[in-house]
Amino acid sequence: MKTSNELKETVRRKYAEIALQSKEVNETSCCGSGCCSDEVSNIMNESYEMLEGYQQEADLGLGCGLPTQFAKIKKGDTVIDLGSGAGNDCFVARAEAGSEGKVIGIDFTPEMVSKARENASAIGYDNVEFILGDIENMPVENDTADVVVSNCVLNLVPDKRAVFHEIFRVLKPGGHFSISDVVLIGDLPGSLKEDAEMYAGCVSGAVQKSEYMGLIEDSGFRNITVQKERAVYIPDDILLKYLKQEDLDFFRNGRTGIFSITVYAEKP
After folding, report:
1. Which domain CATH number covers 42?
2. pTM higher than 0.85 for the full model?
């Protein structure tokens, strides 16, 4: 079993590679992990193209939901995006917050931060900032944000409890978050849990839905609501990279489910 630091370094290296991949490659894998499938053209990602502020150059096809669509961002809000990648959710959030608002993207992969800054410069935004940092220990002051968003990122983080505590810290009193993520119902096979590449592909890093919701409540949030939920189907040709056929058959016939959820919660 890899340590927390080893898992984080695995994710960092993988997402440095992903920053250079095309959206088409990323969409046909598990969150860009590179384990491409012949069965489907899009496993996790949902289309942003109908949302105001969408920038094609910033869309790497890495998400599992549309948190900014549900985030109730108002003009003038300060928004923090956790795991901001090439800036896709930040630019959609900026369309909601307007020129009088501020958007801060945090990512721990230097290549992603560089790519996002290039995209922001090309668009000409001066109120969108990208910071290199770890979301388990954000380089942001207390009570900074009105809204926090994140898209398919917390499942990659070993210490999810620390992230929710950090979200609580950086939100202003009365602020809220809307986060899309991958969760489980039932247990994954052990070989999926232990494989580092699949971890970077965001499935084996996921926790039980009940545990995930409990972490949010334990961190002090209130009015916790699942805004959207959908089943995620991981094709056989991906899973067979990690499972024997008999294990795959058991996995398919069991009660295990992989779900994308978008969760909303408020800081009192």
Report:
1. 3.40.50.150
2. yes
